[in-house]
Structures are given as C-alpha cells and as structure tokens.
Specification:
This protein is α/β, with parallel strands linked by helices. It contains seven helices and seven strands; from the N terminus they run ββαββαβααααββα. A five-stranded mixed sheet has the order 1-5-3-4-2. Strand 3 and strand 4 form a beta hairpin. Helix 1 crosses helix 2. This is ParB/Sulfiredoxin domain-containing protein.
Length: about 210
C-alpha cells in the first residue's frame, strides 16, 4: 500500500482552504455544523497537502477558526510530499465523496430521533407510504385467479383476434364496465359464471 499520507499536528489557523473545493454548505447547515462542533469538537480528521492546503475538512476547519480556535493544534492527515495537480484533485474528490448509500429502513428503526437533524436525501414519508401499500392485506377476489393446475374454479378462455369478434362476444356476454378489485382502475369485466353463460346463450338463440 502506498503511504502517501501520515498523521501529524497542525495549528488550525495555518491551514489554507482550497479555492476550488467541490463541496459547499448552506447557511442553515453552517449553523448546524457550528452547534455540533461546539458540542463534540472536531470528530473527523482533516486531510491536507504538504503545503497545508486543505483537501478535506474545509468547512469544519473554517468554522472552528471563525469560532475563535485558530490557535488550536489538531491532528491532520498530511501528504508526505506536495501532490501534483491531478493527484490533489483526485484525492479531493475521493475524500469529499460519500461512498455507499443510507439504509433507509435501518435509519428509521434505529436513528428515528435524529431524522430531522440531518439531510439524508431520503423521502421518509414516501418510504412509509410505499411500505404501507406493500404490506396492506390484498382484497379477496370474488373469483380469484390462481396458478395453473391449482385453480379453484374451472376456466375457459375465449381468444378474440380482431375487434369484430371482440364486440360480438362482448355483446353476447353482456360485458359491463367495472372497477378492478386491486386498484381504482376501471375496465371491462370478462368473467361470467357457467350459469350466466348458459342463460346468455339461450337468450341469444331465441
């Protein structure tokens, strides 16, 4: 493994923010960051180039200096040599990128008390609605369709290959429009009982 960085100590006031840091922070997030720094101090370790240019941790270091801790000495990860421009940009992207993604359900179960304090980029309300829809008991169909070879009822299928046949069959079977039992969709009903079919067939022959 290439040990390009080592842990040393630096005075916060000596660290120089990079002019083109790809991360930015809103005023509201700055206030939250200041509150957490005041409560816990510097938790994560900043990463700097050999000339003290901040690669990662710019927001934390700047806020601490603004809070009056410019003379505070902290641990930092320092490059053992001056990075090339390409190396600096690549390391900056690596350190400022959040790998992976949040486990939304675990957050909800174990960290519910902090959901309003952090921006996880997750729509928890939509997640709850989706879970409720998936776990809701399905309505019981009057004549449920079940897998082949285990049908509860015998079924006969009439295949219409053109619109004329479809209209004739629909007229014969007196197909009505109705609502799907699984959703709010409305369409034509295509299921009749044997008794209904016999009555319809007799009336059609009269």
């Amino acid at each position: 493994m290439n040990e390009l960085f080592r842990t040393e100590q630096r005075r916060l006031g000596d660290l120089v923010p990079h002019a083109k840091n790809p991360r930015k922070i809103s005023a509201a997030n700055q206030r939250e960051l200041e509150q957490r720094l005041g409560k816990y101090g510097l938790i994560g370790i900043a990463v700097v180039d050999a000339d003290n240019t901040i690669i990662s941790g710019k927001q934390r270091c700047e806020r601490l200096v603004q809070m009056g801790f410019a003379d505070k000495v902290v641990d930092v990860r320092v490059a053992v040599r001056k990075l090339t421009d390409d190396e600096l940009k690549e390391v900056m992207l690596i350190e400022n990128n959040h790998w992976g993604e949040w486990d939304a359900h675990l957050l909800k179960e174990e960290f519910s008390g902090f959901l309003n304090d952090f921006d996880f980029g997750i729509d928890f309300a939509k997640m709850d609605a989706d879970v409720a829809e998936l776990t809701a008991p399905a309505p019981v169909a009057e004549m449920p369709i079940v897998p082949k070879f285990s049908e509860k009822y015998s079924a006969f299928i009439i295949v219409c290959t053109n619109e004329i046949d479809e209209n004739n069959v629909a007229e014969l079977l007196r197909v009505d429009r109705g609502q799907c039992y699984k959703s709010s969709k409305v369409g034509s009903t295509h299921v009749v009982t044997a008794k209904q079919f016999q009555e319809l067939w007799k009336s059609a022959k009269l």
